[in-house]
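Researcher: Please translate sequence to structure tokens.
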Amino acid sequence: MKILITGGSSGIGKGLAEKFYEKGWDVLVTGRDAVKLTLLENELKGIRTMVYDSSLPDDEISVISFIKNEWGNELDILVNNAGHVALTPFENLERETLENMYRVHLTAPSMLTAGCIDALKKTRGQIINITSSHGIKPYPQLMAYGSAKSGLNMLTKIWALELAPFYIRVNAIAPGPTETPVLSNAGSPKRS
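Model: Translation complete:
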């Protein structure tokens, strides 16, 4: 079985990678931090990693190429987990913050998923989008993040309808605040 987990070098994604690795799955983890990915490879011998920055346009092309070339264009599970949080009062919102949040949480998962559909069709696979309780219930200073996660919840529903004829299941998991590097860095100007 083959699983791709984006944003898997820490937090929820890393926890998922560890569990699927323990089950003997072929795991590909992507993340922005090459050092963390190397540490993960050293910790979990045989796991595969790839640098992928969901904030960069077209960065998903190398991930899709890996699936086609290394895995015979077969994928059992795609976990769209990559993300970040920025606490920003609405009155101080900057265009760059909003556009980046939408790129990371909406555009990138859409483009990556679209590129993986043929591989998922072959296995009648599944897509799991890690959203957030902040995409369901509004919170102050989380306008960009909350609206992006709300959009990902809607994409999940649309993809489920469109991909059902191909026996591809699409679901979302919307955890509440979780002790991860993303949460601990939420108030800083740097992305976690």
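Researcher: Any highlights?
Model: Helices lie at 11-22, 34-43, 60-70, 95-123, 143-163, 181-184.
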